[in-house]
Amino acid sequence: MSQVIDTLDEARDAAGRQAWRAAFAAYSEVDPPKLTAEDLERYGEAAWWSGKLDEAIAHREAAYRGYVAAGDQRGAARTALTLSWDHGGRGAFAVSAGWLKSAERILAELPVAPEHGFLGLVHALTAMFAEELPRAETLFEEAYEVAKSLGDRDVQMLALSGRGRTLIKAGRIDEGLALLDEATASAMCGDLRAHSAGLVYCITISSCQDLGDYRRAAEWTEAANRWCDKLDLSGFPGACRIHRAEMLRLRGDWPAAEAQALAACEELHGFDQSIAANGHYEVAEIRRRRGDYSGAEEAYRAANELGRTMQPGLSLLRLAEGKVAAAVAGVTQTLQETSEPLTRLRYLPAQVEIALATGDVDTARAAVSETESIVDAFKVGNQRAVAFDAMVHVGRGQIRLAEKDWTAAIEELRHGREEWHAVGAPYETARARMLLGTAYTRAGDEDAATAELESALATFERLGARPDESRAKELLGRADTKRTFLFTDIVDSTRLLETLGDEKWRRLLARHDELVRAAIAESGGEVVKQTGDGFFASFGSAKGAVEAAVAVQRALSSEIVAPDVRIGVHSGDAFRTDGDATDYGGQGVHVAARIGAAASAGEILVSTGTLDGIATFRLSNPRSETLKGVQQPVDVVAVDWR
User: Fold this and answer.
1) CA 511, CA 484: separation in Å to the nearest integer?
2) What is the pLDDT at residue 1?
3) Are β-strands 481-490 and 534-539 bridged in parallel, bridged antiparallel, or unpaired?
4) Is residue 425 within 8 Å of 251, Cβ to Cβ?
5) Has residue 237 got a pLDDT over 60?
6) What is the pLDDT of residue 582?
7) Taking a C-beta distance cutoff of 8 angstroms, is the pair 400, 408 a contact?
């Protein structure tokens, strides 16, 4: 008997010190009938912090029954509120709502107690998540006053941080950050329960990141990490790992960031779906930047299964894969469904990049304008957050590049490069440098271009950002690359001009150009240049090039009046030509042009080697063509596009 009493006292002592693993181990040695309702509540807390959510729920349910049997209504209400939180975190929202109603029913018959303050917090958080910000602020204030009157520091600081978050969402940035700093400093002092301290840390760090205030986010992340590291626990340390992973990725330590995010996903599995989903998304972002597209998609899907949107990462992945239409659809739909300004800010830079890839400068320009408006509405200390200002300058620079205003592009991109460097974000800095190098090249300043591209390349190589590394090498003219090239040409254009006259020919040609450009962009290609009455385009995949060729012919055939066009497609080695970061040269380009010239009116002619592994098109029997400037005959097939 004395050993049982000693073990139970040991469990209670450990729980009182918030030594939850020790408490869990000790409680596990005690026969359940010996445990009071209060013991069961503590046992549940110990199980929760030990990463055993099912056991935590079972013990808390037993505690609830014990409190009800003993007539301890406050204890029953408190446990019901905790169970509501447990089930909500794992996505069982109907069960969560049921426990919340139980708590409300019990507390409605009791005088004001600390549990009323916690219930007020739940209602305030619900209003905040529903974007009912004035109501949320009022409810947080009421919860704070209840807690203050009862001396409940946990609810006080949670209400303070919740109100701070609400003020930030309402655009009252400095007021909100001041409240968050106050609440988080209190959490650091150790006068809050571990669960309350963890919530305060998460709210503060997430708010700082949403505002682009990475300096403040880094400071509180370090403080939270020290707090997590002192606790030999699961649960909130998993959330701490995700914040740590986000900062490590920003700082360029991708291996450590991925390791932290994966560990967090493991710790939070079945525990808190929303936080675990953010861990999977973080893994996906790292893999996409490395060029591990299948691994990235797998992680995006895992995040989606746990309730997190896959955007904007999935759309940027589709863009990298050459699936431009899917990229446009994904980011456009997401923005249509999103109204909260800081949330929209996460998607707008991706819309700029994707829109420019399709030649839609108007959409990109509108996205940059909205970005700037949001950034100005959420200043910190009456100043734009440095990261947000960098985002604006890079977006403007991209627009200026598309408009061929090289001088303005250089000015904007230099600002963006310097600000990302000040943030301490090497990948974003290198991306800005690569754009700046392109602008210098177009402006004819080869020395400045080379310096920027060299620096960007070194960073990409160090980070393992393979797609960006390849692009930088191409821009420097250092790497041969295998691409698929497409040439179009209007047949008998001279005769058409004579027949139609200048004005009708001009309108016909403009419509032709519009349709061809759209088909190329939608299939993931880039227009290298116009060649007389035709186009020279480059694609990352042969399938995309052939799909674009088919789309061109079908679009023209649907017009009332349109010229006949011949198209040639060929995959081969090529290189970026000196002095022009957008042009290609080499044998692959030459062969593609000659195949185009060999095609007949309305025909798509493709070299047979280009179609290896592609079985989605109806083809003619192969024929051999002797091409000017090519030593050996080339086998080609015609694609049936009708």
Assistant:
1) 25
2) 46
3) antiparallel
4) yes
5) no
6) 62
7) yes
CA distance 247 to 258: 11
DSSP states of 468-482 as a string?
HHHHHHHHTT---EE
Start-end of H helices in 523-586: 542-557
Helices (H), 108-235: 114-129, 133-150, 153-169, 173-188, 194-210, 214-230
Q: 384-426: per-residue pLDDT in tens?
A: 999 999 999 999 999 999 999 999 999 999 999 999 999 999 9
Which of 620, 617, 614, 584 is CA-nearest to residue 600?
620
Three-state SS for 599? coil
pLDDT at 51 over 80: no
Helix 386-402 to helix 426-443 angle, to the nearest 10 degrees? 30
pLDDT at 5: 59
For the CA atoms of the chain, what is the radius of gyration? 31
Burial label, 92 (beta-carbon count in 10 A; 0-12, 13-18, 19+): middle
CA dihedral 360→361→362→365, nearest 10 degrees, is 130
Question: b vs e for 239-268, b when ≥16 Cβ sit within 10 Å of the residue's Cβ?
Answer: bbbbbbbbbbbbbbbbeebbebbbbbbebb
Q: What is this structure's pTM?
A: 0.71
Residue 580 has pLDDT above 70, yes or no: no
